[in-house]
Design brief:
Elements lengths: L1 H6 L23 H13 L4 H13 L3 H6 L10 E3 L4 E3 L15 E2 L5 H13 L7 E2 L2 E2 L5 H9 L10 H12 L4 H8 L3 H8 L9
Antiparallel strand pairs: 1-2, 2-3, 4-5
Length: about 200
């Protein structure tokens, strides 16, 4: 398409038409659903790491891929949790910023005690990843997420990205300042307003 705009039509260069963008997912968890997911994950021997993922995702709004790369110490290929400073670095020291922004975020007060407890447990066993499967890093969520989701009696529309939607929705429902919420989530205020603004108590007031 760039070629056609620059140089005009040429039969040997195909012109492509992209399909319309899918509407954004709007599924978010209620507090009882989030609690059910955490309980279900903790009960299963193969799903305990999902409980950490849910708590970090709901309280920080971090994308699932960035959560799986989080470590306890500064890293070049993933973010890390700086518990002393209370900052969650979601991008590695050697990683370039992409369209999906991974800005640093203040660790919410309700998440910090969980991170400190997990840090003590992991350091005692020499585990470096915040979310791990019995000490091993997780490259991609496969059956473990669906296993915990089914045990929690939640539908197929509950995917890992639902945690980010939940964080944004809860922030808006609580009447949080839009600029601060956008900073925590690593998105623009305009995007936050467009997708989640209707949850804010001041919506169209």
């Amino acid at each position: 398409n760039h070629y056609h705009r620059e140089h005009g039509p040429l039969p040997s260069v195909p012109k492509l038409t992209l399909p319309a963008r899918s509407p954004p997912r709007d599924k978010w968890l209620t507090r009882s659903e989030a609690a059910a997911m955490i309980r279900a994950a903790r009960r299963g021997r193969l799903t305990r790491h999902i409980a950490r993922l849910v708590l970090i995702g709901i309280y920080s709004g971090t994308r699932s891929k960035a959560m799986l790369r989080l470590k306890w110490l500064p890293s070049t290929d993933g973010g890390w949790a700086d518990l002393a400073a209370g900052i969650l670095h979601r991008r590695g020291l050697g990683e370039k910023e992409t369209r999906k922004r991974r800005t640093p975020a203040r660790i919410p007060e309700r998440l910090l005690p969980h991170l400190k407890r997990w840090h003590a447990l992991d350091m005692a066993m020499g585990i470096v990843h915040v979310v791990h499967y019995y000490g091993r890093p997780i490259q991609k969520l496969r059956r473990s997420w669906d296993t915990a989701r089914v045990a929690a009696e939640l539908g197929e529309d509950v995917v890992p990205h639902t945690l980010r939607h939940t964080a944004a929705t809860w922030l808006m429902q609580a009447g949080c300042d839009r600029f601060e919420a956008a900073g925590l989530l690593g998105m623009s205020v305009a995007m936050l307003e467009e997708v989640y603004g209707h949850h804010h108590p001041d919506f169209q007031k």
